[in-house]
Specification:
The protein is mostly helical. The protein is built from 5 helices and no strands.
């Protein structure tokens, strides 16, 4: 005894098994992605000029920035394994909380100089 469902499938057995034709390809051909531009190196840390008529604090800040800029440039010559340690040492040296109260303002300004160049440090894989 064959039920109606089985009879239907038996009748359509011959038409099954042939694959339907795929739809025509209307998608545009894949385009090559444009080449990514080379990353541009951020500006190298440049300290402020030592002011001739500035306050003693301004002079000390400018001198501190010059020492820091030289130290930051020297980081590139240091072995890769030592770069982050040297940067941390530099940041600790100029961190306002690590300096005496009478030098806190100077340390703050020089520390801000270091922070302003985080992008340059990151570009050189130091920070």
């Amino acid at each position: 005894p064959v039920d109606d469902s089985e009879a239907f499938w038996e009748k359509s057995k011959d038409s099954r098994g042939t694959a339907a034709e795929p739809p025509p390809n209307t998608a545009p051909p894949p385009q090559e992605a444009p080449p990514e531009p080379e990353p541009v190196a951020p500006e190298k840390p440049v300290p402020a000029e030592v002011p001739t008529d500035g306050s003693l604090e301004d002079v000390e800040v400018a001198q501190g920035e010059q020492r820091v800029a030289k130290s930051m440039a020297d980081l590139l010559d240091a072995p890769f394994s030592q770069r982050r340690k040297l940067l941390k040492k530099l940041r600790v040296e100029w961190h306002p909380d690590k300096n005496a109260e009478d030098r806190q303002t100077i340390a703050t300004r020089v520390f801000q100089f270091i922070q302003a160049h985080d992008e340059w440090l990151a570009f050189h894989e130091i920070s």
